[in-house]
């Protein structure tokens, strides 16, 4: 992850304003974007058209950069792990139905069992 791929800023949305981090390596597609929202301590998916005009650069009076960066990196690890798992599960091939064998290929074996269930009648000494 390059530092050029990370942008630190503030989402200005009245009482819901919060420091945010945008990692350009995390793609959402469909005119959506993922931002780490520090107030929620999690990644949130936003509509790009709505949120981009409300973003501004982070300044030193907002929050210490190292505090925001530490929280972002911890949240990113959990987020990336969850996305990898989800992507893997989404792309897992569907289970194939069991193959049907021709009845002529099945060999019946008579083991002398009359169909009675085995009953374990050993008692515990508890």
Helix count, DSSP H or I runs of 4 or more residues: 2
The figure for the number of domains is: 1
Helix content: 10-25%
Q: Indicate the multimeric state.
A: single chain
User: Overall mean pLDDT score?
Assistant: 79
Strand content: 15-25%
Number of strands: 5
* Rg from Cα: 29 Å
The major pleated sheet works out as: 5 strands, antiparallel
Uncertain regions: pLDDT < 50 for 5+ in a row? none
Helix-strand pattern, N to C?
EEEEHEH
Secondary-structure-based class equals alpha+beta
Spatial order of the strands in the main sheet? 4-3-2-1-5
Through-space gap between termini:
61 Å
Shape verdict: globular
Write structural notes for this entry.
This protein has 126 residues and is α+β, with helices and mostly antiparallel strands. The chain has helices at 48-51, 65-91; strands at residues 6-11, 18-23, 32-37, 42-47, 55-57. A five-stranded antiparallel beta sheet has the order 4-3-2-1-5. The longest helix is centred in the middle third of the chain and has 27 residues, at 65-91.
In short:
25% of the residues lie in helices and 21% in strands. The protein is an alpha+beta fold.
